[in-house]
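pipeline: protein-struct stage 2 | run 1193 | ATP synthase subunit I
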Amino acid sequence: MPELQQLFNRHCKYIIYLIAIYVLGWGFTSYKTIFMGLILGTSVSLFNHWNLVRKTTLFGEAASSGKKMRSFGTMIRMCSAILAVFIAGKYPNLFDLISVLIGIMTAHAVIIIDFFLQQIFKSHIKREER
């Protein structure tokens, strides 16, 4: 599954760039709670994405060797999102709850945007080959 690892590496790079932008926003604007919420939510989103890629790789290895796998770690991903929301609720002076929720969805948005960009890039290359 090297293509899955390439996808994850690209997604990881984009998400880390977003976190860097959020850190700059936290440092240079007065919207500190919003950017801290985005940082927390996006960090959890990156962890969940990493966990899913790791479990998918393990599932592929187990399937090719004829073994069974227990789960894809859905509980861990849900618990990490719940923990982030709990932290935001516990410390509302540091984290904005809505920003945490938006941050948790960041990996999904990055995956969708990356998919469309790759499709546009592939169609552009095909047109140049003609």
